[in-house]
Write a structure and sequence with these properties.
225 residues, globular
């Protein structure tokens, strides 16, 4: 068995300058002066969205904003009779309006739901901290993309995340499904911006050394040859 992990285009997913970040926030209508936490992925329950929302509810202030990028797609393998039932079982929200409604009920106001978009990289580059609260996950491209952009990452302590994130070096780990523990990690990075920047730089370097798409290509060629 030969294991070859996914690769990331380091030119496409690159850190943004202060000017680029400002431009992207103006263009996509994200608050300029706030510290932005971002989640990218499907808006389904097993991604730990409730954990993230509950943790952010404790963090939220006039200085923070939560950005949730992603929607819910039907499983194309299901027969039509089962689609709606499967959707209701898996989805955290039925649509973007339902997502805002749920956030309002929970008392969260400083949040943006984009639903499905084609320009995820733009949202990553305008953000400050990436959070992945998944209860279960395969090899996460979303995590690699965030690290490649140079974001400090806070991720749940599941096997696939542990294989990439070294706690305190290129990101932070928290207990799966524990919103209080996630809140502590989020609060810590809000307060210690120097440490946050250090994690982001180490994350970028880690992707450069291990997950550059050119390395992936070379590994395939080595295998084929």
């Amino acid at each position: 068995i030969t294991y070859i992990p996914n690769g990331i285009s380091l030119t496409e997913y690159s850190p943004a300058s202060a000017e680029e970040k400002k431009h992207l926030r103006e263009k996509l209508r994200i608050p300029l002066q706030k510290q932005v936490f971002i989640y990218t992925g499907r808006l389904v329950k097993d991604k730990g969205i409730d954990t993230l929302i509950n943790a952010y509810k404790l963090v939220e202030s006039c200085k923070t904003h939560l950005l949730i990028v992603g929607g819910v797609n039907n499983d194309p393998s299901l027969k039509e009779d089962f689609v709606n039932e499967d959707f209701k079982k898996k989805a955290w929200a039925a649509d973007v309006h339902d997502a805002y409604r749920k956030a309002k009920i929970l008392g969260i106001s400083s949040v943006t739901f984009t639903w499905s978009v084609d320009n995820v990289v733009d949202y990553l580059r305008l953000s400050d901290i990436f959070v992945s609260p998944s209860l279960t996950e395969g090899f996460s491209n979303s995590l690699l993309e965030a690290m490649s952009v140079g974001l400090p990452v806070i991720v749940s302590k599941i096997p696939s995340n542990i294989s990439i994130v070294k706690d305190g070096y290129n990101g932070l780990l928290f207990k799966v499904g524990d919103d209080k523990h996630l809140y502590k990690k989020m609060s810590y990075l809000i307060k210690d911006k120097e440490f946050s920047l250090k994690l982001g730089k180490n994350a970028r370097r880690y992707v450069e050394n291990n997950f550059d798409i050119s390395l992936t290509g070379a590994r395939y060629m080595e295998l084929f040859n």
